[in-house]
Amino acid sequence: MCLAIPSQITKIENEIATIDVDGVQRQASLLLLEDAAVGDYVIVHAGFAIKQIDESAAKETLTLLKEAAALVENEGGDRSKD
Question: pLDDT tens digits for 3-27?
């Protein structure tokens, strides 16, 4: 299963973007997108930015993912209770 996490473009050089997710930086190709710019939020899959999304949707998704991670952490990640 793949999880698409919104990432913000912090730098672009030769169709390669440096993207940031909560302080973690990686690189992603921009070959599949038109008009991507520094500051934009994108969805990345297999090293390619595949879709631009607006900032409010990106921030909402990131907040929900953090809340879900906190719930799992608080439960100790123990699924044997199911």
Answer: 778 999 999 999 999 999 889 999 9
The DSSP output letter for 16 is E
**Matching CATH number, 6-74, of 2.30.30.140, 2.40.50.100, 3.40.50.970, 2.40.50.140:** 2.30.30.140
Q: Which two tokens stand for residue 35?
A: 């008009």
CA 61 – CA 81 distance, rounded (Å): 28
Predicted model pTM: 0.80
Farthest CA pair distance, the chain: 50
Domain ranges (residues) in the chain: 6-74
